[in-house]
Amino acid sequence: MAVRESNRARRLTVRVFHTGRVEVVVPSRTSALTVERFVERHRTWIERKREEARARAIPVAPFPPARIDLAACGEVWHVHLTGVGKRLRLKPIGDGLLALEGDTSDARAVRQLFRRWLTERAADVLGPTLHTLARELNFEFERVLIRRQRSRWGSCSTRGTISLNCCLMFQRVPVVRYLMIHELSIPCR
Asked: Cβ neighbours of residue 186 under 8 Å, at least 6 residues apart?
C-alpha cells in the first residue's frame, strides 16, 4: 500500500487500481496515526476491491510484444528481437516490421524505447490528420503536441496548442476523429 502526500488533497482518500495496488492520498502534514486509523476503518472495503480487481485481472501480456496494432492508422507492426549489438534500439526494417536490437534485459529501458517510438509514430500520423481535419472543418489552432498523458486523450490550451495522447494510436479511426473535432471546436483562445 502506497501513501502519497498531496498539497491539493483536502481529505484522505483511498484508491484501488485495476492491478490491485492500493494508494492512499493524504493532505500535507497528515500524521501517520491518522492514516493508519483511516486505513483500518476502510480495510474491509479495500480488501473487497482488491479481490474484485484480482478476479477481473487480465493476464499479463508478454513484453516486449510480438505484435503492435495501431488502429488509428490501420497499421500492424511485428516486433523482431535481433539480439544484435549492445545498444538498445528499435527501428523499422521493412513494411510493418520493427527490429529490437541490443540487450533487452532492462525492461524499463525497453518500455521507454517503445513509448518513444509510439510518440514519434503518433506525431507522424496524428499531427497531419489534425491539420487536415482543421482545414476541412475551417478551424484554427497554433500547434499540436503529442505526449503520453495519464488521464486525458487530448486538450487545448489558451494559446491554441492542442495536445494529443500518443495512445490514441490504439483507438479506432472514428474515435480519433471525434476527439480531434472535440479539441478543435473548444474555444482555445
From this structure: 156
Partners of residue 68 on adjacent β-strands: 77
Q: How far apart are the C-alpha atoms of 24 and 28, rounded to whole Å?
A: 12
pLDDT tens for residues 6-46? 999 999 999 999 888 999 999 999 999 999 999 999 999 99
pTM of the model: 0.70
List the Cα angle 96/143/174 in 5-degree steps.
50
CA distance 51 to 61: 21
| Kind plus residue range of the DSSP H or E element containing 37 | helix 32-41
Cell numbers that stand for 59 in this block: 493476464
Rounded CA-CA distance 164/152 in Å is: 8
How many angstroms separate the CA atoms of 16 and 1, rounded?
9
Reported in sequence order, the residue ranges of 21-66 that DSSP labels E, i.e. its strands, are: 22-27
